[in-house]
Structures are given as structure tokens and as C-alpha cells.
């Protein structure tokens, strides 16, 4: 369990985190969302004792990070996949962490196997791809078999197989009763993985809500549809109260209905489909609506906050 109360951090004139209070519960995957500069990384760093709060508290299993007797056995984190020394091998990097964290060396081979790096365990980290470094970072997070996991953009650099793997891993970790807090800018990824969502903007909590509730609130996103009978399809969808607009190469962008419903409507009218692709997920639509007042940088506009000095 992670508990954050009145957590505040200012850097000079910039209020990066502003009186945040929330709990992250065990047994579910909790997504941590916010526009660029919202304060997600700063919050995660304070939970991990890497930054001192200006005021307020963040505790892990009831204690501040610095008061945890064996931190890596309580909380594991993926923050910066570039953190491993390039000259070390994957195994020696993990052995070094295990030694410092009071973890038995045999655990190193277990986590290497878990993340699929056993075959390259003896290779230097400097030659690793971003995806391999990401897997190594996840191995490091899991090393102490912690009850709490904090993952910042874990799908970065992973290929489609890797993305499916991390999705399954996060679900498994939560199903084992662990606390999993994960940040990502990929809304479709979040929607597929997170059960609960914390949304912050300009350092403040905007929403602390179940994924199902959040995505049912707003519109259902937009779906790109292609068909050789596009006009018949457009009129069928409009008849079902969808919003329909023309898109590139004779396709349609359909709002107000999800892909499954559009498929059913087309089938009922025997209209063949050539493409049926969600473009903007319902989570993305809800996120945009929630954070519209708190984006720090907007395309075509100047930043509304001073840059850090
Ligand atoms: N070390 C620092 N010194 C000064 N300002 C900082 C520092 N770290 C973060 N900030 C500022 O604090 C605010 C929050 O930044 P933070 O990196 O926590 O946001 P974020 O939500 O993680 O953003 P992103 O999605 O872009 O990673 C930003 O305005 C940022 O410029």
C-alpha cells in the first residue's frame, strides 16, 4: 500500500506537486496519468525517497522510504532504464544490487529468467537495446520480491511481444496481491492494463477513480472504419445516433459507438468492412476532458509556466 498525504514539492518558483493525497491499493493495477510536467515523476521520486517533499508525506507499507529496514524488499521501481553501468553485465549489475539490498544471489537468475534475459545475462549492458535495458530495469525492480511496484513508462522501447509480456506481468503481480502503480502516456495501453486511475494536472489530483467508471463517463472515443459501401454504412451508423465524419481515403471516423457495436451494425446490414480501428480510446477522451485546463505546453502556444532554472 502506498499512502500519500498533502504531498508538496516546489522547485524555486515552480510548484511541481501541490498537496497531493491518495492511496494506491494492493491487488489492482493503478495507472498514474497526467500531461507532461504534471508532477508524476516528482511524486514517484518522493515515494522512493529520491526527492525530499517540501511538505506532506509519502509512505510505503506504513513507513517513509528512508525508514524502511530493507527498502528493495518492500518496494521495487523502474524509473530510469539507463541507470545500469554500461560496462557491467546484466548479471553483475543485478548481483551488485542484490548484495546492497540484502537479497540472496540465487534470486538474480530467477529474475533474469522472469524477464527473458537469461541468454544475455553475461553481456555488457552498454550493448543492450532500449527494450533489453527496460527488461533489466524490471528485473531490478522485482529483485527484492517487493509487495509494492512503481513503474514509470514500462512499455518504453518494448516490441509488441514485450508489450504483451509487461501487460501480463503487471496483471499477475496485482493478482498476487501486490500494489502496482504504473505511469504511461499510452492511453490504449493503460486502458488495457489498469483497473484504477489517478489523474494529476499541474501537481494536483484531478481524479482518483475506477477505470470502468472513468471510461463510461465520457464519449466512447472514435473508430476509423473502411468499407466498399461507405455511404450505406454512414447512413446506418447515423441512424444509430453515431457521429460520422469523412476521413482520409474515403474512410469514416465514427464517434459515439465502440468498434464492437459498429461491427454488429455493419453485419446486421450485410455491409462488408475492410477496417475497424479505434483511433481515440474512451480513456483518451476522458483524459483530454479532465486535463484540458492543466496542460503545460500546448501545440502552437507558448508554455504557460516558467521553465525550471
Ligand atoms: N529538478 C527539478 N528542478 C526544477 N524543476 C523541476 C525539477 N524536476 C521537475 N521540475 C518541474 O516540476 C514539474 C513537474 O515535473 P515532472 O517531471 O514531475 O512531471 P511529469 O508528470 O513526470 O512529466 P512527464 O510526463 O513530462 O514526464 C515540471 O514543471 C518540471 O519542469
From TrEMBL:
Residues 2-227 form the ABC transporter domain. Gene3D superfamilies: P-loop containing nucleotide triphosphate hydrolases (3.40.50.300). One of its GO terms (molecular function) is ATP hydrolysis activity. Pfam families: ABC_tran. Keywords: ATP-binding, Nucleotide-binding, Transport. Belongs to the ABC transporter superfamily. This is ABC-2 type transport system ATP-binding protein. It comes from Actinorugispora endophytica.
Amino acid at each position: 500500500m502506498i499512502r500519500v498525504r498533502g504531498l508538496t514539492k516546489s522547485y524555486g518558483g515552480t510548484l511541481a506537486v501541490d498537496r497531493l493525497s491518495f492511496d494506491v491499493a494492493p491487488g489492482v493495477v493503478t495507472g498514474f496519468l497526467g500531461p507532461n510536467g504534471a508532477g508524476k515523476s516528482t511524486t514517484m521520486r518522493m515515494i522512493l525517497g529520491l526527492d525530499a517533499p517540501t511538505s506532506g508525506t509519502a509512505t510505503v507499507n506504513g513507513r517513509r522510504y528512508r525508514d524502511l529496514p530493507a527498502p528493495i524488499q518492500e518496494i521495487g521501481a523502474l524509473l530510469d532504464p539507463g541507470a545500469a553501468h554500461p560496462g557491467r553485465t546484466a548479471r553483475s549489475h543485478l548481483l551488485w544490487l542484490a548484495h546492497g539490498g540484502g537479497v540472496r544471489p540465487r534470486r538474480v537468475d530467477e529474475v533474469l529468467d522472469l524477464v527473458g534475459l537469461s541468454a544475455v545475462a553475461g553481456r555488457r549492458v552498454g550493448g543492450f537495446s532500449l527494450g533489453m535495458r527496460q527488461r533489466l530495469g524490471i528485473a531490478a525492480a522485482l529483485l527484492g520480491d517487493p509487495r509494492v511496484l512503481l513503474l514509470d513508462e514500462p512499455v518504453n522501447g518494448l516490441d509488441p511481444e514485450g508489450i504483451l509480456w509487461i501487460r501480463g506481468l503487471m496483471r499477475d503481480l496485482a493478482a498476487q496481491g501486490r500494489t502496482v502503480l504504473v505511469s504511461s502516456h499510452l492511453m490504449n495501453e493503460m486502458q488495457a492494463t489498469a483497473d484504477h486511475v489517478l489523474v494529476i494536472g499541474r501537481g494536483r489530483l484531478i481524479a482518483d477513480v475506477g477505470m470502468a467508471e472513468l471510461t463510461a463517463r465520457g464519449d466512447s472515443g472514435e473508430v476509423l472504419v473502411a468499407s466498399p459501401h461507405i455511404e450505406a454504412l454512414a447512413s446506418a451508423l447515423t441512424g444509430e445516433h453515431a457521429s460520422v465524419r469523412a476521413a482520409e481515403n474515403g474512410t469514416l471516423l465514427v464517434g459515439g459507438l465502440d468498434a464492437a457495436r459498429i461491427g454488429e451494425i455493419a453485419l446486421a446490414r450485410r455491409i462488408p468492412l475492410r477496417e475497424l480501428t479505434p483511433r481515440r480510446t474512451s480513456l483518451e477522451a476522458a483524459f483530454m476532458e479532465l486535463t484540458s485546463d492543466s496542460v503545460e505546453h500546448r501545440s502552437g502556444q507558448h508554455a504557460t509556466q516558467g521553465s525550471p532554472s
